[in-house]
Specification:
Blueprint lengths: L3 H5 L3 E3 L6 E3 L5 H31 L20 H18 L6 E5 L5 H15 L6 E5 H13 L3 H6 L1 H11 L3 E5 L12 H20 L3 E6 L3 H7 L2 H7 L7 E4 L14
Parallel strand pairs: 3-6, 3-7, 4-5, 5-6
Antiparallel strand pairs: 1-2
């Protein structure tokens, strides 16, 4: 049984717009089906490649969205120490791209490149993983704001619809790697807002617990020392957040890398 393509196979056709002449290739039905499947698979692969890029942009919560544009290839050579730290972060990226999952802690003084390297890590994983890997970067203060909104929504129905619960659901079901940027800035248990801070601790505990049970990775950056964090959070929260991160902790104590953390394209 022949189809329309069989009747045209081997014949020449003229493009009415350009006047160019083309010859339709002679293919067997099996070859035609194989070519069609290959084309479909190519389209599927392009779609799957775009998914992580779309996910990180739609689900990240940042003060500066140019953070998502940072990559290892654009980093300045600030110091030998920063170069060495970058090598360590690249190795973590290689692990994540290969499917390994564990928590990571970037700790040190402000302006030393923690956020930049966390973003470079995520950028590399999003674009170069063997399998589509969903990632997001969230600023700790942004989560704190979501939690405060959650606290205001006292009714159970409203809580389920709150932005924080939407975030938790998306993290649980879709996200593979989450960066929590600037942990500690959003909460201080020495303030009078003890209830809100307790809710924030509960939020971090839930995120860490989901990460552990669902084999996800959490990358934490913080300007605070471990001793300072111990004053801000209870031991259960920190223990859950830092589960496994003690073996994958990088301290940033070098010189400031300044406001221009990346060089522009030449």
């Amino acid at each position: 049984m022949q189809n329309a393509f069989d009747n045209l196979a081997g014949k020449k056709i003229v493009d009415p717009k350009t006047g160019n002449e083309y010859q339709i290739p002679i293919l067997t039905r099996e070859q035609g089906l194989a070519a069609s499947k290959a084309k479909e698979q190519e389209q599927v692969n392009r779609y799957l490649k775009r998914l992580p890029e779309q996910f990180v942009r739609e689900n990240s919560m940042l003060n500066e969205y140019d953070v998502l544009e940072r990559s290892f290839g654009k980093l300045e050579r600030v110091s030998d120490e920063f170069v060495e730290i970058t090598k360590q972060v690249k190795q973590i990226a290689e692990d994540f791209k290969a499917g390994k999952r564990y928590n990571v802690l970037f700790q040190g003084k402000q302006g030393r490149g923690k956020t930049t390297l966390a973003a470079c890590l995520i950028n590399d994983v999003v674009h170069n993983s063997k399998k589509p890997t969903m990632c997001a970067i969230v600023n700790a203060t942004k989560i704190g704001n979501l939690v405060n909104t959650y606290d205001d929504a006292r009714a159970e129905k409203e809580r389920k619809k709150s932005d924080f619960e939407v975030f938790i659901k998306r993290f649980k079901e879709k996200c593979d790697i989450l960066v929590i940027d600037d942990l500690g800035k959003e909460a201080n248990l020495q303030t009078e807002e003890r209830e809100a801070n307790n809710l924030i601790q509960s939020a971090w505990y839930r995120i860490a617990d989901i990460s552990l049970r669902k084999n996800k990775a959490v990358v934490i950056t913080s300007n605070f020392s471990t001793a300072e964090l111990n004053h801000m959070y209870n031991s259960a929260t920190l223990s859950r957040l830092f589960m496994g991160a003690r073996n994958h902790s990088i301290t940033f104590n070098g010189e400031r890398i300044g406001d221009y953390r990346q060089r522009t394209e030449a």
